[in-house]
Structures are given as structure tokens and as C-alpha cells.
Predict the structure.
Amino acid sequence: MPCIQTKVSVKLSEEKERNIKTRLGQAISILPGKSESWLMVGFEDECRLYFKGSNEQPMAFVEVQLFGKSNDKAYEQLTAEITNILNDELGIDPAQIYVKYEEISHWGWNGRNL
């Protein structure tokens, strides 16, 4: 039950949003036991983000929440893939992207907790 929330400082076209959503759906399988079949994805574009005191370059903040835990190697691989996706699709330099991971022990779905 992962969820990926992406905030970008640039405008997202519907086509780019679909492409990124599809690619994130493929990338989530890097984390053992995770798949697109349980993935929720959200986007916020044209966010007012600043990095190192500046907003001159396109940038992104990505939050990955998952029910349970994963391992450092998988997180490293997923970070690389997320930054590749945002660079390919939106031209955002990987040095302008933060990725945050949150492991969650209680997750509600369908009227109950897992």
C-alpha cells in the first residue's frame, strides 16, 4: 500500500502527468512486495518551492509512504528511478529533487485498518 505524492514547481500537462504516473507505477515494484495494483499517486504542479534560497530552477519534492518497511538498497534504487523519471519527463535536474520516505505501521483502507 504505497502512496507517492509529487510536488513540482513547473506546470504539468495531462500527458506528462499520465507518463509520470505510469512510470511511477512501474518503479514502485523496486520495493519488495509493492506493486502498482495498490499504489496511490498524487500530483501538485506549479508549487512555490525554494531550494538553497532560490526558485530559479525547476524543482520537486516527492513523498513516498508505504505500509511496512523496505531496505536501504531498494530505497536507493527507487530514488534513482524517481529522479530519472522527473528529469526525463520534466527536465528537472536530480540535484533539485528531494525524495522523502515514510514507513507506516498503521494504514487504513476500505473502512478498516490493516
